[in-house]
Design a protein that fits this description.
There is one protein chain. The chain has about 475 residues and is an alpha+beta fold. It has 14 helices and 23 strands. The strands form five sheets. Strands 5, 6, 7, 8, 9, 10, 11, 14 and 17 form a nine-stranded antiparallel β-sheet that branches. Strands 19-20-21-23-22 form a five-stranded mixed β-sheet, with helices on both faces. The protein has a four-stranded mixed β-sheet with strand order 1-2-3-18. Strand 7 and strand 8 form a beta hairpin. The longest helix has 14 residues. The chain is globular and about 75 Å long.
Length: about 475
């Protein structure tokens, strides 16, 4: 199912009882955060998307927590469960093994390829340009100040569109924007991000500025695609077309040569000046701590376009679980088949919510040779954004890594600290505050697999305690008669 726009998605959530309209007056200065934080910490039916219709001082509603559960995350991507997308990717990755000598094999995969690859379509009459404001004024939008020590209000769910000056290839990332005044914001792209790569290439090419456009409030598949850990040259809008099984409609901006989603609620057009930086932050971040203030490029807004009666889409981050956790769990499941294609011994992976995506990875592997767990750790640290993982725990294939207590039981019982723990220096996420050095530090690998004699463990390794299957089956059949429920 492909949603046409954010409104279509919100309507579906409301129809299913997964969205709550808030009509009472609420401030976008801290109050929306406190309300949303309480809702996001609930379990079950109490955790819903929120549409604040009466934001004090504004006539624009705020939609938040729309992705804040696995159920809503699956709905956002048009599937029953996230595993359906993982299975689709897994099937696609098997295509190279089809024999192209057989004509019927080739014909059979054509529908699958057509379903998977949907290039963007370009349109002229776009809903996002129903209102054009060449004298931009951010003051009209209910931009949230999320936490007490934040450096100011922040746009928290923006899709930032840039192009590489040499190749012209598009990149879409999600980088927070601190509002400085009515027409300038910060541009918080970390040095490791593709948007920052495009900026550096622009400066290196001797250009004075780089054109940028920001979309706020898009079809949810587009919003998710902007967060996905794609290789640099994979177009996020093509990936969004894969997710929604339908091409994304793009339209050209009014004042910059950048294309943006046609059904967006709000578009900010402008540029980042080469070499210009301004203090940005602090910001209450997804680690549960404030990310520290630092100098970042400045986004100058030249034009704002939006739909009539726009919806302002936002999110908040902080101590998990929060909305971004479920987007990250979707990434864990969707990209597992890709990870398995590169590291085939991996059985499953869990990025615990309390590890905020990049602080811990629990990995189960099919172990077939000595020291294989350490090889897997090094492979993961060499893969894209997984290079930021501070702790990797590797267990045997029969261990359910989604059961964190089971993983820790093996860590606490199975490891010999001298031989099963490794520490290496390498890049860390820019938000990491624990390392003495910014952007790099020491990472930990824990091999909690059964240690083999070939790995230096010459003592007998005991069997795990487990009941026989016959006894378990017999007790299950007798359970109702025992009166223990």
């Amino acid at each position: 199912m492909a949603y046409r726009d954010l409104r279509d998605f919100a309507a579906e959530l409301e129809k299913r009882g997964l969205l709550k309209r808030i009509k009472a007056p609420v401030s976008c200065d801290l109050e929306i955060t406190e309300i949303t934080d309480r809702i996001s910490k609930r379990e079950g039916t109490g955790n819903v998307a929120l549409l604040f219709e009466n934001v004090v001082g504004y006539d624009i509603p705020v939609l938040i927590n729309a992705f804040g559960s696995m159920e809503r995350m699956a709905l956002a991507l048009g599937v029953g469960t996230i595993e359906e997308l993982a299975d689709e990717i897994r099937t696609m990755l098997q295509l190279p093994y089809i024999s192209f000598q057989n004509k019927m094999d080739v014909i059979s995969i054509i529908p699958m390829i057509k379903k998977a690859i949907n290039f963007p379509k370009y349109v002229k009459n776009a809903p996002c340009q129903e209102v054009i404001e060449r004298e931009p004024d951010l003051d009209k939008f209910p931009i949230l100040r999320c936490w007490p020590q934040d450096g100011g209000p922040f746009i928290t769910l923006p899709l930032v569109f840039t192009k590489n000056p040499a190749t012209g290839k598009r990149n879409v990332g999600m980088y927070r924007l601190q509002k400085y005044d009515k027409c300038t914001t910060g541009m918080h792209w970390h040095i490791h991000k593709n948007g920052a790569d495009n900026y550096r290439d622009t400066v290196a090419a001797g250009k004075k500025h780089m054109e940028v456009a920001v979309a706020i409030g898009t079809d949810p598949a587009l919003t998710y695609a902007a967060t996905a850990p794609l290789p640099r040259d994979v177009d996020e809008m093509v990936f969004a077309g894969f997710l929604r099984h339908k091409s994304v409609e793009l339209t050209k901006c009014i004042t910059v040569n950048v294309e943006v989603p046609a059904t967006s609620e709000i578009i900010l057009e402008g540029y980042v000046e080469a070499g210009e930086v301004r203090r940005e932050g602090p910001f209450g971040d997804h680690t549960g701590y404030y990310s520290l203030a630092d100098d970042y490029p400045v986004f100058h807004i030249t034009c704002i376009t939006h739909r009539k009666n726009p919806i302002y889409a936002a999110t908040i981050v902080g101590r998990p679980p929060m909305e971004d956790c479920y987007m990250a769990k979707a990434t864990e499941r969707i990209f597992l088949p890709v990870l398995q294609q590169i590291i085939p011994e991996i059985v499953d992976i869990n990025l615990p919510l309390t590890g905020v995506f990049h602080n811990c990875a629990m990995v189960s592997i099919k172990k077939t040779y000595p020291q294989q767990a350490k090889k897997v750790m090094q492979s993961i640290w060499g893969m894209g954004q997984m290079m930021f993982t501070k702790m990797i725990i590797v267990v045997d294939e029969h261990v359910d890594v989604q059961n964190e207590k089971e993983v820790w039981w093996r860590v606490f019982n199975n490891i010999d600290a001298k031989s099963d723990i490794i520490m290496i220096d390498g890049p860390l996420d820019a938000l990491d505050h624990s390392s003495p050095m910014a952007k790099w530090g020491t990472k930990l690998g824990i091999d909690a697999t059964k240690t083999w004699p070939e790995e230096g463990h010459t003592r007998e390794w005991p069997d795990e305690i487990s009941m026989s299957e016959i006894v378990k089956r017999n007790v299950t059949e007798k359970w109702k008669d025992l009166g223990l429920d």
